[in-house]
Amino acid sequence: MGLVWLRGVKVDSKKDYIINMQVSVSLLIAVSFFCLLVVTAFVIAVLLIRDLLHKQKIYSNFANYLGDFLVIVSKEGRLIDATPTYISDPLYVLILRQRSFKKIFSAAEYKRFTEYLKGLDAYPDIPFVFSQDLGDGLSWYEIRASMQKQGADIHMVLLLKNVTLDVESRTQRDDLKEKVDMLLQNTGDFLWSMDVDTRTFTFLTPLVDDEGRAIPRTQGVQDIRAMMPEEDYAFFDKHLNARIVEFRATGQNSSENRGVRLRLQGENGKLDWYAFCGRLYTEENAKIVFRGSARRMDLELESPVAENSAMSESTQVSALAFPDIRMFWIDRDYKICGCNQAFSLAFGSPIPKDIEGKRLLEVVRPRYFSLFHGVLSEVFEKGLSKSWKGAFGVGNRLLWFNAVPLKRDDGYTYRVLGVYLQLDENDFSSVNNLITEKK
User: Fold this and answer.
1) Cα angle vertex 80, ends 127, 59, to 5°?
2) What are residue 266's phi and psi, to 5 degrees?
3) What is the pTM of this model?
4) What CA–CA distance (Å, rounded) separates 321 from 310?
5) What is the pLDDT of residues 327-376, one digit of tens each?
6) Strand-strand pairing, 288-297 and 190-195
7) Is the pLDDT of residue 138 over 80?
8) How far apart are CA 143 and CA 161, in angstroms?
9) What is the mean pLDDT of the segment spanning 29-49?
10) What confidence tens digit (pLDDT) does each residue in 237-257 have?
């Protein structure tokens, strides 16, 4: 019986040993696996930290150009972290040194900052803007805040942006606008824009009265046609259409005939003259806009010839009877309204009445028309007399051409009188030779 018992004991001890060995191996595997996980996590953490430091170091190449940085502070205002590490902004350096906004702001500024944080939930999109004199002049900053909860702790993430250049640019724009407004108010000029497709006219700056006060009804989109005499708007529309055709054909603005003189109703229906100058621009979706300025013309236009000027019939007949001086007058469509016999004879018609009603281009030769057109169009637009003299490509012939605006009582140029004289250089050379011989 004892032997059996010993054998039984022997057998039980062997089983316990085997079980203990199995437990030890499992525990060893578990510990090894845990150590592997720890080592792997450590390696990954080291690699991540190394990568983060590498990325942070990249900022050092652009330290002078970085204007944004993040600051994390506790609920009590204590600095927890700031990023990026490499940044040359003086406020960033000051925050790292002081580690609290309370030590950076003045008492009044810090009170305003705490009130901003209290109202963050109600107005999350409104930034906190402040200025700091950090030794190299006044700098402006903008703060945007966000609450972050980590368990029972509440952290404040602050995005700070250096907006000094923006503030300075805004100040310069405001100063420029103020100067432009002052200039426009003192001169009576204004800026305007017109949609070519819809003919919508917009006053970018308002008209002003004689005392420099803005006229309320001339702000924003207005019916420019109702503010102009009918013939002025028709001429403006015709001028604009010609500019559009040329712009679409060439892709650029014309270098000539940029301005037209038109009348606008000012205060109490008074008509004032303005010189409209503008350029065509292509905006999005191939939309063309006519934009420019209008300069008020306060001075009386020179050399006016009124429609009902007192001139006796005998004087008119005498003026038209000059044998060598050719005269004609045209309307805004370049139709001949009248001429003297010297002009009609020069172009094959003994009777001046036969030429009336025809277009100038149908009567005169192309070389004459190209010369006349440039002078006549400028007189129509500016309302000022203009003279031209020189050779015009026919042997030794010279031409002396003058154009004078014909105006109604209200000052509107409805016609232009053209007077020209042909000269021959040979005639003057023969006279000079005769004088020399006598001497």
Assistant:
1) 75
2) -95, -145
3) 0.46
4) 19
5) 999 999 999 998 888 888 888 887 888 889 999 989 888 878 888 888 99
6) antiparallel
7) yes
8) 7
9) 84
10) 888 888 888 888 887 776 555
Element holding 422 (H helix, E strand) = strand 413-424
Kindly give the pairing relationship between strand 220-222 and strand 190-195.
Answer: unpaired
pLDDT in tens, 113-127: 989 988 888 888 889
Determine if residue 148 is left, alpha or beta; phi over 0 gives left, psi from -120 to 50 gives alpha, anything else beta. beta
Please say whether the beta carbons of 281 and 288 come within 8 A.
Answer: yes
Residue type, 23: V
Contact between residue 93 and residue 102 where contact means Cβ atoms under 8 Å apart = no
Tokens of 282: 């292509």
422 — phi, psi (to 5°)? Answer: -95, 140
SS3 letters for the chain? CHHHHHHHHHHHHHHHHHHHHHHHHHHHHHHHHHHHHHHHHHHHHHHHHHHHHHHHHHHHHHCCCCCEEEEEEECCCEEEEEECCCCCCHHHHHHHHHCEHHHCCCHHHHHHHHHHHHCCCCCCCCCEEEEEECCCCEEEEEEEEEEEEECCEEEEEEEEEECHHHHHHHHHHHHHHHHHHHHHHHHCCEEEEEECCCCCEEECCCCECCCCCECHHHCEEECHHHHCCHHHHHHHHHHHHHHHHHHHHHCCCCCCCCEEEEEEECHHHCEEEEEEEEEEEECHHHCEEEEEEEEEECCCCCCCEECCCCCCHHHHHHHHCCCCEEEEEEECCCEEEEECHHHHHHCCCCCHHHCCCCEHHHHCCHHHHHHHHHHHHHHHHHCCCEEEEEECCCCCEEEEEEEEEEECCCCCEEEEEEEEEEEEHHHHHHHHHHHHHHC
Q: Identify the bridge partners of residue 77 per DSSP, sorted by sequence position.
A: none
